[in-house]
What we know:
Radius of gyration: 18 Å
Number of strands: 12
Structural class: alpha/beta
Largest sheet: 5 strands, mixed
Mean pLDDT: 92
Low-confidence stretches: none
Number of helices: 9
Amino acid sequence: MRTLREINHLMKQVQDSILTTNKPVSLPLRVGVDLGTACIAVVVLDHENNPICCELEWADVLKDGLVVDFFGAQSIVRRLKENAEKRLGKKLEECAIAMPPGTTGNERTHRFVVEGAGFEVINVLDEPTAANAVLDIADGVIVDIGGGTTGITVFRNGEPVEVADEPTGGTHLTLVIAGNQKIPYAEAEAMKLKPKHQKELLPVVAPVIEKMATIVQKSVSLQPNDVLYLVGGTCCYLGIEHIFSAVTGLEVIKPRNPFLITPTGIAMNG
């Protein structure tokens, strides 16, 4: 099991690789493509899982884990792939992808998007398994809150034994902010991403976060000594971990840059 310090160090390296391209220690490279509801990411690691580069683009081409703009998603993946290739000075040919729990029927669409952008998909994971490639927990619960869905997976002895997925996520926080501030959705989304506004608006979005925590409680069988690990873009919201802990009564761990956990884990399997 990785310590939180080790996880945070790895996530800092991945974050830094958004701007800085690192030299691989060993080949071949590992590539992960994460088609998120709010952000699409391409993460490149070397064969020893050292971060090499990361390309991100905010997007609105998926809804609740499902592709709603096929050509838009394909164009973004192709653009990220080309950007990474320019930085590396070499072609990227193979990658892994991941699916939210409960959306495996959409696997073909995800595969077609990524393969249409020029990759060969060599591995398809579920997102909690991808996240646990980074977290490396034996017993505990991974809560992956993205833009449209909350995925919950219970691990026992390193194996997923219980999985649930609910259609609630960062989109709902944005809708509440837009209504409270009486501003357009896009403006509310931009406000939500800024730490200064996150602190100010926490009382406004707290009921939505409390509902998410309650969903986790009701969706899977939790043990009194379970630890919840928060990953996904919505978990970047300041203070979310304290609300989850208050509602569930459990220890809650939020790693650094939780939105990079899953795409990094996908790359580890690439």
